[in-house]
């Protein structure tokens, strides 16, 4: 609230306002931009608080420099790349604008002690360290089909998988796609403007797994790489998802694939990391492990082919073990592919792991019950992997459902409750003798009452998820899955009848899903039309975004050094942020400083404390639909009753004005990192 009400991130210099933004260091996005402004109570308030010397003589004149000690600045980053900055005084030589007059004025106005910029961890939970991690790989033949991704997502949830590697995704380009269920798909395909829709790989992550993701890199239409945090700070889980050429492909294609795979695996290789290779490798390794006992066991299926020899050679070079050949299972739980006539079964989908962490892998097994209209079986693995738990922030951000204030009855109830709770509090705040140490006490009381009222009347904001697939389609998918289970245990005579029934259900599912998709699209179009009629641009934009099927093209919040190398070490990340802000904020003084002549006459500027009418005007000028600060108080809450809000804030603002001391909450601001999209483009 404070950064909006009192315009703390904005400093008025001359006839212009300056706002400051921070972003990704590689793109140099911390910048300042001038916004036309004028002299208001908010600007006077801000300048008075920033001033510790005599009052200004002119709005454009230069004030006398105060004798302040050399400032100190500390900048550090948590393991979630959250930035914390603390200033005790404006540092010598600190430049925040290219305007010479503004520079001189800024140097003459040192910042008060205690200012800090903080942002709590944005990944509040990751993969649990108290249970077995389950991951899998599956060739699903295509995701370029209505309803297929939702089908695969449901099967992933049914088998409690945190990470699922997908082959033959058939999505072009690369990026991220967030599902309504909270799962996230990282995909990599042909990097072209033309529609190819062949090959392609994808990594489907649960909500918890996506929060432990450090980084991911697409490598064309056959390989995708992702890195995750583990329980040990120095050990990371590196997963390489690959879709190899078939055994009938040319030797040149196979050589190119394994050369690329070798380069990716070797690059930035760390012996402490857990490296895994998963996917449809189209390789039959067989059961004979003579001479290669360190690479595979005797539980393989079939006879080794050319692709199998290449996979064994690769695992030998990279010190990996083929997990599907280690654990004893029935042959039906080893085969990962079945021919259309159901007579030939092969083991061509694999999960491999670093030899050093062989004991981490507990089991690898094919799951025949998973159904997504594909000739491959889902292959799952269990790992006793403990992933790092990130400490939750002490102050949890809460979004209140301010949309309820549009209901007049709820709005009146909110105003009445808030007014009743402040009847006694206003007297306490107004009569307290405040010095620099206890300014937080009255503000905390105000914040507590506003938050308690918002929680009781408005409640937290909840997003209603409306799946576009109808219940009818979901029931058909479930019936098809049951038929597949019957096929697995039926005799040859009954299989023909069941296969016909399976194909019949498959056709009905495709028709039903396409019908659901059309209905969903039409409903979104109607919602967009209604929003446009009501001039609700926010709703129109959100609906249009859904209608266009726009996917999230950003990557995880990792950064790179000056050479473009990915940083995944917390200490190096912290040093990189310090380096970035030190170079950005500490710039040399201009060679030819500007000469500013004093003003001939002093301007008549009202420096008295803001009146209640000015506070009301400031509250009315707040923009809606903006994120709250650490106090969780939004503009909509204050604007529910402008008169009441002004009455509540008037005493404490006057105390702040006279004492020139801010509450701690008002010194907190957020620096948000932005991802350079070019860093996730694959080749």
Structural summary, described in words:
The protein contains 16 helices and 23 strands. It has helices spanning 2-5, 41-50, 100-107, 148-158, 207-211, 251-266, 306-318, 408-431, 440-457, 471-489, 492-533, 537-548, 570-585, 612-620, 635-639, 642-659, and strands at 10-13, 16-21, 31-36, 73-77, 83-87, 115-117, 133-139, 163-167, 174-178, 184-188, 201-205, 213-219, 223-229, 236-242, 274-280, 320-322, 337-338, 345-346, 349-354, 361-367, 378-383, 559-560, 566-567. It has a seven-stranded mixed beta sheet with strand order 9-10-11-8-7-21-20. Strands 12-13-14-15-19-16 form a six-stranded mixed beta sheet. A hairpin with a 2-residue loop joins strand 1 and strand 2. It is globular.
How is the topology of this model organized?
Layout lengths: L1 H4 L4 E4 L2 E6 L9 E6 L4 H10 L22 E5 L5 E5 L12 H8 L7 E3 L15 E7 L8 H11 L4 E5 L6 E5 L5 E5 L12 E5 L1 H5 L1 E7 L3 E7 L6 E7 L8 H16 L7 E7 L25 H13 L1 E3 L14 E2 L6 E2 L2 E6 L6 E7 L10 E6 L24 H24 L8 H18 L13 H19 L2 H42 L3 H12 L10 E2 L5 E2 L2 H16 L26 H9 L14 H5 L2 H18 L24
Parallel strand pairs: 7-8, 14-15
Antiparallel strand pairs: 1-2, 2-3, 4-5, 5-6, 7-21, 8-11, 9-10, 10-11, 12-13, 13-14, 15-19, 16-19, 17-18, 20-21, 22-23
Helix pairs in contact: 6-7, 8-9, 8-16, 10-11, 11-12, 14-16
